[in-house]
Amino acid sequence: MESKYTLPSKSPLKSIGSAVRNGIIPLKRKFQGPENSNGKMFKANGVSLAGGANNKTNGPQHPNQPTAKQITSKMQMEQQRQALPVTGCRKRLIQEIYKSDTLLIMGETGSGKTTQIPQFLLAAGLCNKGMIAVTQPRRVAAITVAKRVAQEQHSQLGETVGYTVRFEDCTSARTRIRFMTDGFLLREALADRLLRNYAVIMLDEAHERTVSTDVLFGIVKEAQRQRRLRSLLPLKVIVTSATMDIDHFGRYFGVKGMYLEGRTHPVRVMHAKESQSDYLHATLVTLFDIHRNTPSNHDVLIFLTGQEEIEAMAQQIRQIAKTNINNVASVRVFPLYAQLPQNKQLECFLPAPANARKIVLATNIAETSVTIPGVRCVIDSGFVKRRIYSPSTGLDVLRVVRISQAQSWQRCGRAGRDAPGTCYRTYTQEEMNAFEKMPKPEILRSNICSTVLQLLALGIDCKSFDFLDRPSPEAMETAYQKLESLGAVRNASTVPELTPLGRQMAQFPLDPQYSKLLLAAPQFSCMEEMLSLVAVLSGDNVFVSSVEKREHANLAHAKFHSKYGDHLTLLNVFSAFQKTEKIKLWCHDNFLNTRNLSYARDVRKQLLEVVERLALQINSCGNNYDQVRKCLLVGLFDNIAELQRDNFYMTITGRQRAKIHPSSVFHGKYRPEYIIFSEIVLTERNFLRQVTEISPEWVAEVVPHFTHLNRIKLSS
Ligand SMILES: Nc1ncnc2c1ncn2[C@@H]1O[C@H](COP(=O)(O)OP(=O)(O)OP(=O)(O)O)[C@@H](O)[C@H]1O
């Protein structure tokens, strides 16, 4: 292993850009790290703590009194907090926030930005007249960080500290610090552009540049201005990251950035000496070298690109560990990707059993903000699956691409959270030098239909919106055209205006094409069915795949198969689930995911509330499933594909060649001539996911305005 890796020469932050050197106020800290923090005496819950060993009792003396174990862990947590670099700058930070309405803070990964700054604000009384919002690009980060901060506050989650993510709210009237996804705050802005619920908004992980965060930059800037003009409570905005382009942000917000010095624990970075042709193989070799040569309590986090890759590698690791490793600790493998049910995602955050090494195989959802306790080693494949919109094809596709340098450093920062760590990069230093510095902002590479619609609902034409990075005029034009074809906008090419239908579409927390399905459903007498289907499609995979019991799982799933395809199969599953009483047992027997189905049921309830508020007719088509299939066309008309002679499919919009995904009910059985799909995934092989057979005649009947109608061969 040693021969494969070299130590890097560059310091991470300096390699990100001139930001650190130019015009940034350095925030000097008092503490240099755990070794210098002399926090010997701490107070928690009125109990004076002078070291766990002095607490003689082990059990609770009073029901409300903490046990010795709890006291020790509270004390450790408090010590950890005191040792964080950000803690030494607390006073200075508070002074700065009183002086300035906007702060840009750049500090090393793990320095304590996300968990500590909101607590400083709380202690300083900055949220007496409004809450502190902390946005995160991903749900798993919002949830786990909220849990940690609630623990540090010694309060129940949902009390002083809570979180809200789409379709899930864990807050109460007493909540002062609210973690949330950026998408959720954006939806709140729809109801109140001045965001009056909040005294402070902290936009964390700004370097991620999701579409929602980019739009939020403009929204909060304007809310700040409006609140100042109207002499309302000033809105404080804090933008934080370890790897943002602070010069660029500084120019946009008109303020200087601050650089927070120091990191908690060092991370040794190792690069592959030579370019690796197979990063999966290199990852496995590295992992087992680590497994043989480091203590079993050094857990490992591996960054891969997606569900299939992760599941395949998890299998391989378990197999190798079972057969080839003698006299070394056992391994516990945890996958972590967005489609995994939430409870499964959170499993890797628990400590591994004694004498077992925890190995977490994650996508980029573990790249920012999260702390996975125990992780001392990170193996970075250097690849990520990214959603990219191609204006030329009009399709949103998923592609495996190289990560950016900023992502490399973020991944590296997942080691060294609770102890010194090591990051193994399966790519060379030279290869990394060629990576782009920052990932291209999502708004410049994805479909911005939703954004354009939401901004219009706020009365903003995105052509005049104050973007940090402006999408190209063509991308805006394409989005307006698509919204016009969905009937959400009129005068798309001149002075765009939201239609009444578009206003209704913006009420749903959904992509416009899915909102359109619900709005069209009454006309096809299938509202009940469409509510269920859209709810299931909004969540994660409801099918549980089992490598050991594959036959059983396939047989169980086959009961729900619809001859029309995957959408109606999903509907069959959900309908059966809704009729079931003992859902856990039923899901277990049928290899279905209880959590994801329960989530879909909750989503359905919320969608139903919007449907009722809009007074839409709630009807059902019974067994006449053609109605559902026709209705699907109303929103997904750009996702039609036609069977070719060589058994590939060709998408009508964008002319992409692809095969039906192996998870489809059609896979290996029957190839319908025309299909509609939910998603196209472009990897080394192109796949269409969730497909349903349609009749070509329906296209002219249901979406006569479909631009490529003439490409469809009508059989009659
Ligand atoms: N869930 C957790 N469990 C254990 N320790 C945690 C947890 N969350 C945070 N910590 C500790 O707090 C430290 C600071 O974490 P925090 O997320 O505030 O840092 P950060 O500066 O925001 O990092 P990043 O830029 O990577 O998001 C971590 O290094 C870790 O030691």
UniProtKB/TrEMBL annotation:
Domain Helicase C-terminal: 286-459
GO molecular function: ATP binding; double-stranded RNA binding; hydrolase activity; RNA helicase activity
EC number per UniProt: 3.6.4.13
Catalytic activity, as annotated: ATP + H2O = ADP + phosphate + H(+)
One GO process term, biological-process aspect: positive regulation of transcription by RNA polymerase I
A Pfam family that the UniProt record links to this protein: DEAD
Name used for this protein in its record: RNA helicase
Organism from which the protein derives: Stomoxys calcitrans (Stable fly)
